[in-house]
Specification:
This protein has 11 helices and 8 strands. By secondary structure, it is an alpha/beta fold. Helix 2 runs parallel beside helix 11, helix 5 packs parallel to helix 6 and helix 9 runs antiparallel to helix 10.
């Protein structure tokens, strides 16, 4: 199934993300995580893609396993250091594996020096020309760190839509007011494709500080206080992180923002806790 069909439905859509193991790690463990997550029936699952395509084969294997569970897979694909031949090969691999949905991303540059695709919009245009795939893209409620301004970032997002992007998934955001303001800005600029809100329950204090530093995402003071209070108690922080994320999600759904993407950090208990606590709200 193409994800755009799910996002246009009137019912809430709750999805989640997982990532392949690092080089040398066991693929079998990632497939076990797919098995565990599939039990709670997320509407779709996205599978990330390592820098420079380092986990490309595992991304395909995991996405294929997701599809075999009857859940649409959203396979990430980065382009910054890829040749056109490599992109063609990956798309063919997706087709052969029954993958119909692609999250097209620029990615972080490595050292190959290849510059055939400078922007995510270049990749989207390439994929759209095939006519085979549903194309998603990333967006940044607090602005991409390299954009220079939020207006410039939204201008770049418009280029993605013009290139064939059918829906957007936001970077993690911990303040719903920022999301609502961002939606207003998108609509004011003629961007009306479905937007999926990216929500990350914080379960590791050191990790979230690093993520926020790299992405430019702000952790609200009241949430930072929660994280710092339970930083040395993993189970308590897990509960607090899920509870905070649930509050965000319930507020979003109550205000008509029905498409939610949970960044699980490969922890099935996160999406399980969220889905179980939304059983009546999101039905």
């Amino acid at each position: 199934m193409k994800i755009i069909e799910l996002l246009k439905d009137e019912k809430p859509c709750i999805s989640c993300e997982l990532f392949p193991p690092k080089a040398g790690s066991e693929l079998q463990n990632a497939l076990k995580i797919v098995d565990e997550i599939s039990v709670v029936k997320p509407h779709f699952m996205s599978v990330t893609y390592g820098a420079g395509g380092t986990s490309a084969g595992q991304t395909v294997a995991i996405a294929k396993a997701v599809e075999e569970h009857g859940i649409p897979a959203l396979a990430h694909l980065t382009c910054i250091d890829a040749t056109e031949e490599k992109i063609d090969a990956m798309l063919q691999n997706f087709r052969a594996s029954g993958i119909q949905n692609v999250l097209a991303l620029r990615g972080d540059a490595v050292t190959s020096g290849v510059k055939e695709f400078a922007h995510a919009s270049d990749l989207m245009k390439k994929i759209a020309a095939t006519g085979d795939f549903c194309i998603g893209g990333a967006c940044y409620p607090e602005g991409h760190p390299e954009a220079g301004s939020l207006d410039k970032d939204i201008e770049n997002t418009k280029k993605k839509i013009d290139a064939g992007c059918q829906f957007l998934v936001t970077q993690m955001c911990f303040d719903n007011n920022i999301l609502y303001n961002y939606m207003y800005r998108l609509l004011r600029n003629g961007i009306d494709v479905p937007v999926v809100a990216g929500i990350m329950p914080v379960t590791n204090a050191r990790q979230i500080n690093r993520i926020c530093e790299l992405s430019g995402t702000k952790l609200p003071p009241h949430y930072r206080a929660i994280v710092e209070r339970f930083a040395d108690d993993p189970q308590a922080l897990m509960q607090a992180g899920i509870a905070y994320a649930l509050g965000q999600i319930i507020d979003l759904i109550a205000n008509g923002f029905k498409n939610i993407h949970v960044y699980t950090m490969n922890k099935p208990e996160i999406i399980r806790g969220i889905k179980n606590n939304l059983s009546e709200i999101a039905k």
